[in-house]
Amino acid sequence: MDSVDLLIIGAGALGLACAARLAEPGRSCLIVESEALIGSHASSRNSEVIHAGLYYPPGSLKAELCLEGRERLYAWCEQHGVAHRRLGKLLVAVEENEVGRLESLQANARACGVDDLQTLDAQQLARLEPAVRGVSALLSPSTGIIDSHAYLQSLLAVAQSRGAQLVLHTRIDSLQTDPRGWQVEGVSAGQPFTLHAQRVVNAGGAFAQQLARHTQGLGEVPPLHLCQGRYFSYSGRSPLTHLIYPMPEANTAGLGIHATLDLGGQLRFGPDMHYVPALDYGVDERLRQPFATAIARYFPALDPARLQPAYCGIRPKLAGAGEPAADFVIQTPAAHGLAGLVNLFGIESPGLTASLAIAERVAAALPAD
Questions:
Q1: Which of 6, 80, 138, 353 has the fewest C-beta atoms under 10 angstroms from its C-beta?
Q2: Are the C-beta atoms of residues 172 and 201 closer than 8 Å to each other?
Q3: In the chain, domain spans
Q4: From CA 114, how far away is CA 109, in angstroms rounded?
Q5: What are φ and ψ of residue 273, in 5° steps?
Q6: What is the DSSP letter of 215?
């Protein structure tokens, strides 16, 4: 194969969602992934939460695509048999001085189109989650959890049913404009290759900027800031039945060390925020005490000995430490002036929730001839 109609770079949730949406019978579609498995980075190293869309600035891409993506994702799970559960989230004001922030979040959510939040007082919260301490809370019934690995497999299956092909161990190094669209240079299984593609989607996640800097004719590339999100699991039976979130961090840079459950009932806590110069998926046991201190504010019966290092994800942020949170960047031909190319930058949380909605935007920007 030396020429394809559509090349999708990256087989995480974004790349696979784009492949499932854009692949068409009779048109060649190639998905390339540098790792040995699909979803090896952020798509499989997260909280597996289907977000309701509470935190993001009204009118932002994050707000719009989270809300649209949430509904698309629930419908996809039902249609394709992907395990998920709408178990709900509690956003908790632990102290009286946090109630105002809770009310502001409720107003922000309403401005974003989220209109199903329920206000709980301390007694109602205690009845719902006896182990949680708080003076007030918001219940988000539209928040859920998903088997992210099953979701990725379902996207790949749909893309392949429409003719897409997946090639692993394949890295794309450069893109150059070409009369046929794009000339693609890369390495597959250790062997260099050249490929021509009419349309290209750069869904490389933490590697998207690296390729963008080697794309002929592309102007300014957004900065990349790698940010660890580390998780601890909690051994034994979970005393919680909902997702529990404290007040978000300043600038909504992070949502605080929250409590999440997987579909098997395993309780885990995280993520924190720690900027790093390079990919690093380690979780230091010495983080147990700072995690325990943060968690005990809303879960005072926490037993720190039951906290065990679990896993770590890396967020491909566009904003550095202390800076206001940045929005998603969906860089289309209308923005950069290069036909047949879409770059996806800074697709951190709620990227998994928004993935199907993002794929719709990409499809609109790259119509087939």
A1: 80
A2: no
A3: 3-45+149-223+325-365, 85-143+225-317
A4: 5
A5: -130, 125
A6: B
The answer, as to whether pTM is greater than 0.90, is yes
Tokens of 245: 């979130």
Confidence of residue 368 (pLDDT cuts 50, 70, 90): confident
| Topology alike, domains 3-45+149-223+325-365 and 85-143+225-317 | no
pLDDT of residue 251 exceeding 80: no
Specify the amino acid at residue 116. Answer: D
The CATH architecture annotation of domain 85-143+225-317 reads 2-Layer Sandwich (3.30)
Residues in CB range of 199: below 8 A, 6 or more apart: 5, 6, 7, 22, 181, 340, 341, 366, 368
CATH 3.30.70.270 fits 3-45+149-223+325-365, yes or no: no
Read off the pLDDT of each residue in 181-193 and give the average, rounded to a whole number. Answer: 97
Cβ count near 301 (within 10 Å):
10
319-336 in b/e burial notation, b at 16+ Cβ within 10 A?
beeeeebbbbbbbbeeeb
DSSP 3-state of 144: strand
Give, to the nearest 10 degrees, the angle between helix 13-22 and helix 148-161. Answer: 30
